[in-house]
Fold each of these.
Amino acid sequence: MAIKVHGSAFSTAAMRVFACLNEKGLEYEFVPVDMRAGEHKKEPFLSLNPFGQVPAFEDGDLKLFESRAVNQYIAHAYADKGNPLICQDPRKMAIVSLWMEVEAQKYDASAAKLTWELIIKPLLGMSTDDAIVEEQEVQLAKVLDVYEARLAQSKYLGGDNFSLADLHHLPTMNYLMGTRVKETFDARPHVSSWCADILARPAWQKVVAMKNNQ
């Protein structure tokens, strides 16, 4: 099998790549990395990602890291497979790219911190910092206000069709739906409907099943 993903089924970044591969209907090998044992901080993993973060991705002799960059490669290289996640029209793709940047720069800035505080730290036996949670909830709410306005005009962030701009939200969204932050999403009807829509996609449900089976 040419495609390999080295990582953890619990990693939001790895889950992002799994979701993309599933949307494209591609077969791949999942190579588990024991992060508790620090395997991601030593060889041979560092030869795949010198920053020591999961996932690392291989497609034949091509080696990549950074999940959003990996997904852009998958969407372009396998454009004729599965569900289209990008647009061929440059103007439409510009809108998709814009919202991909919003996810990475605005949404994830708060969502990742909330996931760390509310999900990951308790799993590691660490205490949640309530002050950080409250601060980041306020910041996330501001971002979701912008999303609510956008989704009142468009079914998906990038336009009429599901794209990478939506997909990239799924890992943190999935985790946060099991916390008090769900209320922040649910308070905005268009955002709430969008979340329900994309979380129900079969490709994402396969990712959830993979995590639950670990």
Amino acid sequence: MITSVLIDDEKASLDTLEWKIENYCPNIKVIDKIGDSRLAIDSIVKNRPDCIFLDVNMPKISGFDLIENLGDIESYIVLVTAYEEYALQAIKASVFDYLLKPVDKCDLISLTKKMQKDLVSKSLYRSNRIHNVSIEKKIGIQVKGLISFYELNEVIFLKAEGSYTRIFLTNNRMEMISKNLKETISLLPDNEVFFRVHNSYHINLNHITKYYKHQGGTLIMSNNESVSVSRCKKTEILKRIL
């Protein structure tokens, strides 16, 4: 069973989506409905849903602002919007998918099948790391049939780019791999040196050179690249670096 949280400031939209999920998607269970986006983070942290159906245009905190503030979460994020032009922005925000209002029954069913398939793929991926492997203090990255091994201290940070991940390395090197950020992070051995500071960034703490503490904050890394810190990660990052 896939657990889900619905977030929308319009009660009618919340109720309609819940009804469609209950009637057409028996493998999804709605565990919370939230009409005020300011309360969303507490619910998500408490319930740890597999999936979040998130409206874009909401007062106080928009859907995209909420994604940024959530930082490191395992949940699938599905944007629900009446505006098709948000599609490109949704891709950049690394969301799983988006649905147009009014939500079509067939689109919703197709989405749940896609989500279920992805969950199965991730399970197989975790149990069988064939193409990318971690060996002690190295990470192996496969690009076009060639596996290159890098020392962990060569990795400055990882950046999500849709279903791909860009890896920033020392000496102005970069690699792009066809795995999303969560999958790429799983290639790293358990190591306190790396930390997820934002929905789009996973950094090597040893490569931080400066930290500007406005709002969530901005990190300057050893390659002079800027990395955003989500607000909910600010306290933790300060503990790690001070």
Amino acid sequence: MGKGFKYDGMHSDDLHITLTGKNVPIVPSLVEHFETIAGRDGAWDFGVQYGTRTIELDCIILAVNPQDLKNKLRALAGFFNPRRAARPLIFDDDPTKIYFARLTGQLPLAQIGSLGSFTLHMTCPDPFVYSTNEEIISGTEMIYVTNEGTHYAQPTLIVVHNGGAGKVTLNRSDGKVQELSFASNSPSGTYTINCKEGTIVRNNTGAYKFVTGDFFQLPEGVNTIEKNGGVDNIEVRYRHTWI
């Protein structure tokens, strides 16, 4: 298997693609928030947010004849159908990192006989880079959660709750504290709190009225999570996250 890539579980070799070059930006695009005022030098800086990340993949595809090339290209277009939404993208030379990308723009082809060359423009709506393996840590006492990345990770918490008042507290590596509180009338059950998507579900039903507080963000380093009250067990699922 050559130095290619795997997209949605399928390797480029199996798609009859040879990767000849790639452009993976070190950081996502930036959305700057400046405000200028007439008569004042410079600008007010209201911060920055990360935009999308676009990855360019230069490829060639080789077929036995021009008709075979057309068939392979049509199959390729179907496989990269952007309506399938962003899918996992992993490079052979960086196998422990994963991007979530989809095809954007046109797919122009330069054809010479039964050989075609083209560039796949893959955009990551979620601009961050993640570990390919999801970390899963659980416990009934204090849990130590380490994020090895350079950007905060947004975990999913699976909380077994005995009902009534309770609390889950995150002591972050940067000194900040975040909390999730269960109301005194919260029923028992398993609560799934997806901090990335901002959803709270109990036994497959929305449970927003029973839980208030912060959706956790795990900065780089060692963070601790502890519980009290009716909270019985916590499982933390997350990926190390990089800018």
